[in-house]
């Protein structure tokens, strides 16, 4: 085990075949381009009969993709954690305390990109869906990570990413859960989303299938 200073986030690292190699501090993992594990969870619900995704807008203070729309909650899995341990990200970022048994696993996604945290980002991402019907005003946002949440109709998202429309309007809540909570409306296009068009489209389709009870579900 690698020793680290108090408060340093330690991650498990893996080789190209997924074999565990050891533990490193998060900044070193991103500098050396090591495979590491990440948790993603997309919340879905129905508002007035319309299937929607709950999207977060990343804080402008984030090193990776500041100010862009992202799926509901995401974060690194700490050394020794399993995929479902990532449920803490829902509580930390959104104030959503979910039962592990309610999360629907889509599978593991491999991603290599330049996220802004280091030279190379190589993620083994466990992707989950969660049905949660609370209104956006009941979310409690971690301001260092998330500055707003939005309802996004799945039909409009699919049209946007297919190129059938060039923009869509979203209604959401900035600073939800604080005294500064404010309802906001924004007009967005594809460039306002964290990169990964094929991943987004797959998520949209899987969310729609989950809401109508269709199977199988996979990423």
Automatic annotation (TrEMBL):
Gene Ontology molecular function: any one: catalytic activity
Gene3D superfamilies for this protein: Nucleoside Triphosphate Pyrophosphohydrolase
One Pfam family it belongs to: NUDIX
Domain Nudix hydrolase: 34-174
Protein name, as recorded: Nudix hydrolase domain-containing protein
Lineage: unclassified sequences, metagenomes, ecological metagenomes
